[in-house]
Amino acid sequence: MKILAFGATEFVGAHLVPHLAERGHEVTVAARSGKARFSPPIRVVTADPVTPGPWQDLVGEHDAVVNLAGSPVMTRWNKAGKEAVLQSRVLSTRHIVDALARTTGKTLLCANAIGFYGDAGDAVCTEETPRGNGFLAEVCKAWQAEALHAQEFGHRVVIPRISVVLGHGGALDKMITPFSLGLGGRIGHGRQWFSWIHINDLTRVMSFLLETHEASGPFNACAPEPVTNARFTQSLAKSLGRPAILPVPSFALRLALGEAAGMLLTGQRCQPEALVRLGFEFAFPGLDAALADIIPAFKTARSS
């Protein structure tokens, strides 16, 4: 396929784009800066999907569009911060769909997040679980609604609801330093659920969804074995050969992050039922094996 990718210069896109190219797809990366680093035959063009413009003509020249655009969520949620989180996702998707309205028969893969389910407690969240409450749930709802409008123009829409992505270069980078110094520990009481996915499995999920014509609608992009936060921190510490004895108190996290602390103090216990039904097989279904694969890359990078 000819694939046009937005928001692909960060962690997930930096892994996904080469993976798609290796599978024989012709990939064009639409980046806000022309300095995005991808090797040929991957093509890079300058475009910002938050603003409509000539880049929209490119959409009709491709078989599929991948939208990963969105400003960072892990920031202090003041009014301006919340607006940036919401509008960067909603407007980029809206303008992509506006371009899709001029053509037919395309595929839109638009990222989303398991934050759609809000604070789900111990309940198991499948793709059939209703939307939860809270700011992130509202963002995910609005983001998904914009993407689904593409169906009105005859396009196939797939929406991976992405969990915490584990890999060298992602959120795990920020956790490694304190844990490697023996300063890591559970967050709050540690009983909140932690749904995750290995970066290699996420790239495989996305290519699988693009290449599987019958795939449509939302898919939980998460490993089939979620863990509690306490279990995750113990496994991470063990993989580094360090203790995990210094928990992060809830009040300290709320002082540091404000309302955004809720992302770390609550969780979702997600299952990838829709992916399993389509026959997708995870290379890393369990946390210990995933960390065993990932941590050596951190140690190599640290020593080089």
UniProtKB/TrEMBL annotation:
UniProt family annotation: Belongs to the NAD(P)-dependent epimerase/dehydratase family. SDR39U1 subfamily.
Domain DUF1731: 248-294
CDD domains: SDR_a8
Superkingdom of origin: Bacteria
NCBIfam families linked to this entry: yfcH
Domain NAD-dependent epimerase/dehydratase: residue ranges: 4-220
Name this polypeptide is given: TIGR01777 family protein
Organism: Desulfomicrobium apsheronum
InterPro entries: DUF1731, Epimerase_deHydtase, NAD(P)-bd_dom_sf, SDR39U1
Cited Pfam families: DUF1731, Epimerase
